[in-house]
Design a protein that fits this description.
Blueprint: H1 3-23, H2 42-59, H3 70-75, H4 81-100, H5 104-107, E1 110-111, E2 120-121, H6 122-147
Antiparallel strand pairs: 1-2
Length: 149
């Protein structure tokens, strides 16, 4: 399996896991709860992942034209579960198409992303984004198990 195939497989698997977590909320309102030290709701973390992946993979690599509104990822509330799931399904396709467009040479080419001080390769960026996805996936899982009662 090539690095390109591996990345596409991992992103699809883990975005599907986010989707499963969101679908697993018994009470849709609980996705937006905050409690004590839990400062980000699962709904907002989901929106953040959708925005992050659409921006860094869709717009930067896939040239989709997506314009990120990061502040809304954390300020919007009470978006229906169905809508979040649809956005996750859409981002799976965008991520797959964008990564698929990269050849091996392009994966190892340097790219200038404003978030990073130094230039990094596309492969580095994609691995970083996958780790970021999994960090927030864990937070969403923890949020659901604690607050969806």
């Amino acid at each position: 399996m090539t690095l390109n195939q591996t990345l596409r497989t991992l992103f699809e698997r883990d975005i599907q896991r986010v989707k499963l977590e969101i679908e697993s909320y018994k009470n849709e309102e609980n996705m937006w709860k905050l409690d004590g030290e839990i400062l980000n709701s699962a709904g907002n973390l989901c929106l953040h992942l959708i925005g992050n992946l659409n921006h860094f993979i869709g717009a930067e690599i896939g040239k989709t034209g997506y314009i990120r509104q990061r502040e809304l990822e954390f300020s919007q509330k009470n978006i229906p579960k169905k809508e979040l799931v649809e956005k996750l399904e859409e981002v799976i396709k965008i991520v797959d198409t964008s990564i698929r467009s990269l050849g091996e040479e392009e994966l190892h080419a340097e790219t200038a992303i404003p978030k990073f001080i130094e230039k990094q390769t596309n492969a580095f960026l994609l691995l970083h984004l996958h780790a970021h996805l999994n960090y927030h996936l864990g937070q969403i899982n923890y949020h659901r198990r604690l607050l969806d009662k």
